[in-house]
Amino acid sequence: MPEPEVTALLPNLVAAMDWITGGRCRPGRRRPLEYAGSTEGGLANQSWKDSADAIRHVDGRYATPPVALCEVQG
Is 24 helix (H, G, I), strand (E, B) or coil? Predict the structure, then answer.
């Protein structure tokens, strides 16, 4: 991308990184980024797998929040 376009997007990048790291990761310790629904009646799964029964353990049990999806880690 041309430099002016990149420069224009930098504030969005900084805001996104602040949102991702703000309180979700403990300083000095690596751990997965987790999420939990913030409103009752909202989406339980905040990813492309947003149906209520999309995220399960290998034994078939539903995953309960907080959830740390591999897509979020990427």
Answer: coil
CA distances from 74 to 12, 36, 68, 71 (A): 18, 18, 11, 5
| Other Cβ atoms closer than 10 A to 69 | 19
**Could you report the per-residue pLDDT of 1-54, keeping only the tens digit for each?**
899 999 999 999 888 777 777 654 445 555 666 666 666 666 666 677 777 778
- Return the H-helix or E-strand segment holding 18: helix 3-21
How far from 15 is each of 3, 12, 22, 43, 66, CA to CA, in Å?
A: 19, 5, 10, 23, 23
pTM of this structure: 0.43
